[in-house]
Amino acid sequence: MFPKSALLALAFGATAYGQLVGTYQTETHPRLPFQRCTTGGGCTTVSQGQVVLDSNWRWTHVSNGYTNCYTGNAWNATACPNARTCASNCAVDGADYSATYGITVSGNALTLKFVTTNTNGKNVGSRVYLMSSDTQYEMFKLLNQEFTFDVDVSNLPCGLNGALYFSEMEADGGMSRFSSNRAGAKYGTGYCDSQCPKDIKWINGEANVEGWQPSETDPNGGSGSFGTCCNEMDIWEANSISTAYTPHPCTVTGQYRCSGAECNTPTERYNGVCDPDGCDFNSYRMGNTEFYGPGKVIDTAKKMTVVTQFISTDGTTNGQLKEIRRIYVQDGRVVQNSKVNIPGMSSDYDSITEDFCRDQKTAFGDTNSFAAKGGINGMASGIKNGMVLALSIWDDHHAHMLWLDSTYPVDSTAPGAARGTCPTTGGDPEDVEANHPDASVTYSNIKVGDIGSTFSSTGSGGGGSPPTTTTSAPGAAQTKWGQCGGQGYSGPTACVSGSTCVVLNDWYSQCQ
Ligand SMILES: *[C@@H]1O[C@H](CO)[C@@H](O)[C@H](O)[C@H]1NC(C)=O
């Protein structure tokens, strides 16, 4: 997630933030069922699935009254003379998900509306986390697994980002590690990501009040002297024009409070503990400009199923992460990710691997901070330890989302600069919020499970039938995890030794 730090736009009339628990509004998490799948056993619904709003968006007030602890851009100096006193004086309250924040659930579908006008003013954007109980985030361990969801991006224009990603947060939001945090996961505390965001009001159970500077462009945002860092796996950052998936490793394990240069400051972007750029696969940027967008191969005018596979070196959870693959399903078609079409890079690449990342950084002349922070193996530690699923909608005060959907740097014609067809003059939050307040994203049908267990040619709707193993045919051999069969497929049907061709559905067989 490129410059996420300063951009969780929160334009919310008289809002404040805190770490005790307030009682003016009962906290009721909207239920969002999801599914766990195995190749042998089909899919089981986790009916206790629910989402919780991040604490940064919540009203926080002195614990014994209605007085705000933070208003506009400023902390209340009486309630919050310092980090610890503030934490003991201030309470974070429950959320009215739909009326205040535009967050609604229908069945297994979650919709996040961009701008919601409410009695306090207006709310811009939101970020929620998936839980399977009232007090704990669901922890996803994705090695040798795949993660699948449906998404509708048709109502996400240029400059917006509907993001679905994993961060290595603590399951209880840090409540047991930091005694001053009384709110925990139930109130959406404990956020971290690879940008080491400093706009987070509460970190490690304390207010981020020290050195707090108001944002120059966001009337309700600011940043303190601490940031909160952790491994981040961006499954999906997208609007109707462009999409990217991007691992961002860190040299720290779990959530870590940074200060100074550790936080990837603007002047020392690559000196922090995390990789701010990541190794991104954006089909447009990788040279296939006809793959994703309105009316394109993956048609963003319609709902689609997005599959992301975390392939391990030995096909078990004991191995190391070696590849992150993307598959789409739309209108009954299983579509493999686009191939790379960039001078200096192999046209066989269609997924994220250590080699892909190295060659991409070289071809684009980008700093290889991905490798410097541990590369694929660095990401693997988060994938193995367990990560929290975040779902959000946001606009970008820092770089206007041009890094996702336009040309960035804006005047560059160098390889890698073109990322989508949006105008370089667009994406200013002021314009996007004024012109597209009703934009929204809908995520649905979330599934996690064994490779090949979460989708079929009908999308992720059914559990899919258990795969069957076929005998390898003679001839050229497909690499392990490559495609080896399926309707409309004409490549090699034999697999390299050590793997066999497994029929996942009518449209796709894979060497496993
Ligand atoms: C700051 O908090 C104190 C009580 O802690 C309150 O009396 C005062 O009105 C607050 N100021 C603002 C600007 O909200």
TrEMBL record:
Limits of the CBM1 domain: 476-512
PROSITE patterns: CBM1_1, CBM1_2
Signal peptide: 1-18
SUPFAM superfamilies named among the record's database cross-references: Cellulose-binding domain, Concanavalin A-like lectins/glucanases
Major enzyme class: hydrolase
EC number: 3.2.1.-
Catalytic reaction list: Hydrolysis of (1->4)-beta-D-glucosidic linkages in cellulose and cellotetraose, releasing cellobiose from the non-reducing ends of the chains
Biased composition regions of type Low complexity, renumbered to the chain: 466-477
InterPro entries assigned: CBD (IPR000254), CBD_sf (IPR035971), ConA-like_dom_sf (IPR013320), Glyco_hydro_7 (IPR001722), Glyco_hydro_7_sf (IPR037019)
SMART domains, per database record: fCBD
GO cellular component, one term: extracellular region
Assigned keywords, A-Z: Carbohydrate metabolism, Cellulose degradation, Disulfide bond, Glycoprotein, Glycosidase, Hydrolase, Polysaccharide degradation, Signal
GO biological process, alphabetically ordered: cellulose catabolic process
GO terms for MF: cellulose 1,4-beta-cellobiosidase activity; cellulose binding
Pfam families noted in UniProt: CBM_1 (PF00734), Glyco_hydro_7 (PF00840)
Region (Disordered): 454-478
Stated family: Belongs to the glycosyl hydrolase 7 (cellulase C) family.
UniProt protein name: Glucanase
